Design the sequence.
């Protein structure tokens, strides 16, 4: 662990002060951003969705043979984006990595909100969301039970479990911090943190129990996260559509998910660092380490893409060859090569340490990677269904304005949820950052005690 | 209403030394309140057994059995023959089993945590807000004034900047 991962020249009291400040001091910039993101979410997500509910699923561009469109691509994208947060946090917790401590809370929040947006995309995709409870096994007068052989039911179980696990994981890790914030706040905030902290005091017994429970959760969530995106891949791989029916799909999806999730963490860290004044906490070391991880993931992702092409070609069936030819040189080919540029070529810049430790270039690259990864998901869904076995089943899919608008709206929804999060949850873990600091020195100051309620 | 002597320390090593001394002097089990988890607390205060692992294990076991029973039971109750294949099909049902194992393992871990750490607890208990910032507190139960004074002497001797008499 590089020793400079720890925030420099901070005391325990500074950490409490800075994190509480991030929660209670809110400038006009925050409110303007929140208002804009809520506005975009309502205009671009909920309005088109209600329009689609009113006029029917025909408002979307999906039709035979491409019955899956950007809604499904967005679903995979958001599930994928959710992957690095909790998974990375769990892996780094188990391996006791010190650089995790300043950034994991926000990464986990990213997981949680990506999953929420992904769940919303399912609602939009199914067309008649008021029947969504039919996916839940419950005794009913119709004698209708879900088919547990279907990958869609695997999805329901896996995503429910992952959403539950991620919510519990982020909450449990935050309990000591809620207690620390509880002591520094007044009014409704104080009441909220009293409830959220459950009466935490920080006794040796409580720390002991938290450590055990947290570690167990981490151990349970790591295989869960891997299973979730494997299962999402089986939505496609268990079909017999050329270019989808491949054994490599599970690792391909998992790697892609961690890749886009890590890029998402870089994006979130940049904004958190810059606009929540966490410069001392989120440092070049974090960007350097995330950059190295991204570089490795980009190489694995590239390798899997090559293998996917090779096995398709080596299989030699006419359906597979046509699907590959169409993907590389057909109608959607510019999107394919854009994906390769953003996700396989551009990330090679991260070989340079200077690049990895430069904030703005890393931000730009992380956004480009996620644009590329969204394209990947669109291509998986779009090109495969457009080019199935028989030419009379071929067809083009072009998203409608409603679908395009909902993509923009889903991003706004994520931003809105995240903006609300940063004002409720301590975005940087107070107690874990303190663990990275040197032990406190005997106090010689006579100022106001740091624990006094001030806000 | 139990009375406790509570000493506030600047450093974790001082606090742990005081807790160790109190324990060695025949006082009741002292507790250390700290802003961070103290790795060496168990060495001083004795090893703690946790029931969380049992909750996790039995929760996961229940989830696994329940998950398989749900999938297999559905298949048996609502028979849906597919090309002469078995009604109870292992590969897809194991996925449901796996997910339910983890779901119930997680939920049981949380219950185990709440039960074993005695949460939620909203009544007044021994607590000092400074211990959520940068101070380390040691609290020990005292039956009477004489015991309190003895505890206070030990706490001050170990470097406590302040000793308070608190009741729970």
Sequence:
């Amino acid at each position: 662990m590089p020793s400079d991962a720890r925030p420099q020249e901070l005391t325990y009291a500074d950490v409490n002060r800075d994190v509480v400040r991030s929660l209670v001091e809110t400038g006009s910039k925050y409110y303007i951003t929140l208002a804009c993101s809520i506005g975009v979410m309502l205009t671009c997500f909920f309005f088109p969705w209600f329009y689609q509910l009113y006029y029917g699923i025909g408002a979307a561009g999906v039709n035979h043979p491409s019955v899956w469109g950007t809604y499904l691509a967005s679903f995979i994208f958001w599930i994928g984006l959710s992957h690095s947060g909790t998974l990375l946090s769990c892996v780094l917790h188990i391996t006791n990595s010190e650089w995790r401590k300043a950034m994991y809370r926000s990464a986990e929040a990213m997981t949680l909100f990506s999953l929420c947006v992904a769940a919303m995309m399912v609602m939009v995709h199914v067309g008649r969301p008021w029947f969504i409870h039919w996916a839940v096994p419950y005794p009913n007068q119709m004698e209708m039970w879900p088919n547990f052989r279907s990958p869609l039911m695997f999805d329901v179980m896996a995503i429910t479990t992952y959403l539950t696990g991620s919510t519990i994981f982020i909450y449990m890790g935050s309990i000591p911090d809620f207690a620390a914030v509880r002591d520094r706040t007044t009014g409704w905030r104080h009441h909220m943190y009293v409830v959220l902290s459950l009466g935490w005091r920080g006794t040796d017994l409580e720390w002991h129990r938290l450590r055990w429970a947290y570690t167990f959760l981490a151990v349970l969530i790591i295989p869960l996260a891997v299973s979730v995106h494997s299962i999402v891949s089986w939505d496609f791989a268990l079909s017999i559509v050329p270019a989808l029916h491949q054994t490599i799909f599970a690792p391909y999806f998992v790697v892609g998910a961690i890749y886009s999730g890590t890029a998402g963490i870089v994006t979130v860290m940049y904004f958190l660092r810059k606009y929540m004044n966490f410069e001392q906490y989120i440092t070049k070391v974090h960007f350097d380490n995330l950059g190295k991880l991204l570089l490795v993931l980009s190489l694995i992702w590239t390798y899997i893409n090559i293998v996917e092409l090779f096995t398709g070609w080596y299989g030699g069936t006419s359906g597979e060859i046509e699907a590959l030819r169409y993907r590389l040189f057909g109608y959607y080919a510019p999107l394919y090569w854009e994906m390769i540029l953003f996700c396989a070529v551009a990330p090679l810049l991260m070989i340079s340490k200077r690049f990895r430790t430069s904030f703005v270039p890393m931000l730009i690259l992380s956004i480009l990677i996620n644009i590329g990864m969204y394209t990947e998901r669109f291509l998986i869904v779009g090109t495969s269904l457009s080019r199935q076995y028989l030419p009379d089943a071929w067809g083009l899919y072009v998203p409608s304005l409603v679908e395009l608008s909902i993509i923009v709206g889903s991003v706004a929804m994520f931003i809105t949820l995240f903006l609300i999060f940063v004002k409720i949850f301590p975005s940087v873990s107070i107690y874990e950052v303190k663990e990275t600091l040197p032990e406190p020195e005997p106090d010689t100051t006579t100022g106001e005690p740091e624990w006094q309620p001030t806000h | 209403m139990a009375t406790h002597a509570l000493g506030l320390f600047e450093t974790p090593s001082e606090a742990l030394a005081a807790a160790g001394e109190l324990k060695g002097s025949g006082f009741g089990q002292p507790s250390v309140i700290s802003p961070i988890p103290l790795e060496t607390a168990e060495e001083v205060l004795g090893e703690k057994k946790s029931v969380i692992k049992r909750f996790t294990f039995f929760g996961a076991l229940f989830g696994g059995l329940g998950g398989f029973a749900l999938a297999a039971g559905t298949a048996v109750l609502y028979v849906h023959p597919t090309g002469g294949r078995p009604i109870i099909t292992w590969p897809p049902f194991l996925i449901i089993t796996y997910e339910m194992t983890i779901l119930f393992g997680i939920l049981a871990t949380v219950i185990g945590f709440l039960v074993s750490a005695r949460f939620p607890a909203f009544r007044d208990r021994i607590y000092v807000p400074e211990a959520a910032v940068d101070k380390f507190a040691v609290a020990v139960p005292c039956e009477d004034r004489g015991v309190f004074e003895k505890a206070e002497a030990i706490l001050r001797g170990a470097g406590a900047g302040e000793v308070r008499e608190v009741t729970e």
